[in-house]
Amino acid sequence: SQQGEEDPQALSIQEGENATMNCSYKTSINNLQWYRQNSGRGLVHLILIRSNEREKHSGRLRVTLDTSKKSSSLLITASRAADTASYFCATRNYGQNFVFGPGTRLSVLP
Amino acid sequence: KAGVTQTPRYLIKTRGQQVTLSCSPISGHRSVSWYQQTPGQGLQFLFEYFSETQRNKGNFPGRFSGRQFSNSRSEMNVSTLELGDSALYLCASSWPLRGTNTGELFFGEGSRLTVL
To answer: In this predicted structure, what is the pLDDT of residue A90?
Structure first.
């Protein structure tokens, strides 16, 4: 079974609003990463947070990691129509393969 | 620097046929991994190669195989195609970090396989 689970499965917001997506995982990890996928395209790396980090920022993105709860959240501030995509969390431990969650489909309405 | 290149981008096959997909990683990347993406199962890990050696393998039947060449280019093959093999097959390359390879993945645009 997949290790990462995103919540919600789908999210629809207006431009300018913030979007928050959550990810839960089951086992120990070395790092957690978030990726974006535009419809039918390849995934694009957004941000990586290591297991010893609690929060990380990159532009309009803010990621938090709570290893005690085995969960992470991705916040996109001031959303734009161009942010419409699917967002996936991915986890990996040393020597093991990446495991992706089922993704959150974000729709940003103009 | 050129990105990850996957060929072909689209292909249609019939049940029972076989297919070979190709992936050229970013120059200098030695790790290549493959994923199958379907609406029902999401992104499923197929296998990972590093310096021509398979490091990890996902839970797929033996009909799915892969290899990596000395120039890091990789191919995956699916034999005896089934309808359920219809999917977007994604390849990703990465630069290993001190041999542990926990860095980011760079994905190609994928090969969309339709099995009729």
So the answer is: 93
